[in-house]
Amino acid sequence: MRAGKREGDAQFWDCGMDDRQDRVLVLDNIKRHSFYEAVAAFVTRYNLFNGIEHVYLAYSGGADSTALLAILAVWKEAHNIHVTAHHIQHGLRKSDGLDAEVAEINARRLGIPFVLTQLKLGCVLANIEAEARKARIEALESVVKASGIENAAIVTAHHGDENIETALWRMGRGCGIEGATLAMRSDDSIPRIRPLLCLGKREILAFLRDIGLSWAEDPTNATDHYRRNRLRHHVLDQLMDEFETMRPFYRSLIQMRCDGDALDSLVEASVMRYMFGHRWVFPLSQFEALSAEAQTQLLRHAARHIVRGYCPDAQFIEQTRVMFVAKTESKKIATNQKIDWTWNRFFVMGRPHGAEPELPASVEVPVPVDNMDIWEMASASSSRMIFLDVPKNTRTKLCLDASVCRGALRFVPACLTERMVLTDGRCPKIMELLAKSGIPDVCRYDWPVLMCEQEPWWIFAGPRSIYARPPVRQQMAYVIEMKCILF
Question: Is 419 exposed, middle or buried (0-12, 13-18, 19+ CB in 10 A)?
Fold first, then answer.
């Protein structure tokens, strides 16, 4: 490697690749390199490009994004993905022109289309890093949207060392596992993918030297003016000197992110099951069974759906959680002018501030069904809803107050349960009830009986249990309906 020309305050590092060098040979060298193999294995393991047909590389011309450019030049051929190198000229340094020149040369050498966007951020006086990052993301996304290409993603060259820096930075601000590290792939409308999180800066530089690609160096990276640079120079460098390899750190942070995403998915599923439009209605008994930490996560996720994308501060969430747990009659509402939280004997609830009660659409939920011959002649459906006007039970339809369900509702053959307690206090045998109801003898043993834990609640086309009380207005109900039943 040798120092190339300077422009303003920047340095161009030339690794000696000749323009006349055969592109096929260069791509073959990249493909055979252990760096490419490691990135390809990482991308494949986590399926980072699933459903993606076109990627836009945020290409600065620096070492990190140049290494990723080389990786994508090979990957696109093997996996039929279109790649565009997109360079953003911020207008903050005199050397912007050199960065763009190096980026365009490398893209041309590797056969990748090149796009240049020029910004004018020279007038920004405060928080330059954040403003430049925001403008860069907006420029990248606008180009993707303007292209009209579907299934497109933005690819950035954040690597493992930067993931460590990010974790240290965010933990210093009190961040927990959620959001403490960089995502391998975001769930934005235009996904952002980071294929280099499994490797570090030293491996990137060694890779570029081996394949002979040049890059431009941003001189601000060498200063201690920014906190991230100080973490890099004085903390990360000591870690690298202390440990033989940093890959275990990279893997740990990736696994931490995966664990956090998995927990998020579980909490999200719990929240969505009890969303009715923009209202959230969750059983109080289930809420009380959770740990304080799980209750906090549940409320945070629910808030994001009650008011789309909104994340209340920790103090308001804790205030709400304590109110739900204490169940003090004099304290039944918590609000911050965006969300109203309240509770009653059966549910904890949240809705947009000042919103009127609404009738939510029913949400289909599965009812576990044992294998019974009767299902050749009948089918069952179940839904959860809140009624403004409670319908009457019929011979084939049952509306249950959800708060009295002690366990999962399920159907069993009549032969698996003996008696049930009727609303008039009698406790007859189920087979006798079926006979009196006129159920054909051939069907009686398989006739569907709705159960809650070990208690029969309903014989369809027949009587109901004393425990199967109907709901009242504004409370959650289970609705179970049989269709095409023989009677």
Answer: middle
Q: What are 97's two structure tokens?
A: 């022109």
Whole-angstrom distance, CA of residue 156 vs CA of residue 196: 8
Strand pairing partners for 411? 369, 450
**CA–CA separation, 207 and 93 (whole Å):** 28
In angstroms, the CA 286 to CA 269 distance is 14
State residue 236 phi and psi, 5-degree precision: -65, -40
Token code pair at residue 49 = 């490009």
For 90, 130, 138, 428, the CA distances from 125, given in Å and listed in that order, are 14, 11, 19, 83
Long-range contacts, 349-357 (Cβ 8 Å, 24+): 349/279, 349/280, 349/281, 349/282, 350/279, 350/280, 350/299, 350/302, 350/303, 350/306, 351/278, 351/279, 351/280, 351/306, 352/278, 352/306, 352/307, 355/278, 355/279, 357/279, 357/388, 357/474
- 392: how many CB neighbours lie within 10 A of its CB? 7
What's the pLDDT tens digit per position in 135-170? Answer: 889 999 999 999 899 899 999 999 999 999 888 888
Angle between helices 63-79 and 96-109 in degrees, nearest 10:
30
Give Cα separations from 356 to 278, 279, 360, 368, 424 (angstroms): 11, 10, 12, 35, 39
Q: How many C-beta neighbours within 10 Å does residue 94 have?
A: 10
What angle is formed at CA 313 by the lines to CA 312 and CA 319, rounded to 5 degrees?
A: 95
Start-to-end C-alpha separation, the chain: 87
Record the tokens describing residue 366, joined without a space. Answer: 């599965």
What predicted TM-score, i.e. pTM, was given to this entire model? 0.67
Q: Could you read off the pLDDT of 325-353 as tens digits, one per residue? A: 998 888 888 898 899 998 877 778 898 98
Other residues' Cβ atoms within 10 Å of the Cβ of residue 290: 15
Q: CA of 283: how far to CAs of 129, 265, 344, in Å? A: 46, 20, 10
Q: How many residues does the chain have?
A: 487
Give residue 205's region: left, alpha or beta (phi > 0; psi -120 to 50): alpha
Quick one: 260 exposed, middle or buried, by C-beta within 10 A (0-12, 13-18, 19+)?
A: middle
